[in-house]
Amino acid sequence: QEQFVESGGGLVQPGGSLRLSCAASRSIFNLYAMGWYRQAPGKQRELVAQITVPGATNYADSVKGRFTISRDNAKSTVYLEMNSLKLEDTAVYYCNAYRAVLGREYWGQGTQVTVSS
Is pLDDT at 1 greater than 90 in this prediction? Predict the structure, then answer.
């Protein structure tokens, strides 16, 4: 199992912004779709955003218009820019890499995002 380096989580007030980063190995990053998932206490892990190798993006309805996923191929890093944060965004956010042709996926260790006054 690959381990990705996640960073950027923290405590932020409602309406604030955070940017999450996930640094992956080049061998993974160049061949895998990348994504962000989150899991709140007592809830199932859910998809937040995905970005394909060519750069197509998909978002959960709950974050559309507020979050932006992007990838920097030179740095083998995927980002999640989170704006207008809400209390319900509080969760552990996990970086994910997926390659459909192999049916393989890898996960980061998770980073805590807490939205609170």
Answer: no
- Alpha-carbon gap, residue 24 to 103, rounded angstroms: 18
User: Residues with Cβ < 8 Å from 61, sequence gap 6 or more?
Assistant: none
**Cα–Cα dist 37/14, whole Å:** 20
Q: Residue 11 has which token pair?
A: 């405590």
Instruction: Give the span between the Cα atoms of 81 and 18, in whole angstroms.
Output: 6
pLDDT at 106 over 80: yes
Query: N- to C-terminal Cα distance for the chain?
Result: 37
Determine contact, residues 18/113, Cβ cutoff 8 Å.
Answer: yes
Length of the chain: 117
Q: Dihedral angle at the C-alpha atoms of 16, 70, 108, 91, nearest 10 degrees? A: 30
- The dihedrals phi and psi of 88, each to the nearest 5 degrees, come to -70, -5
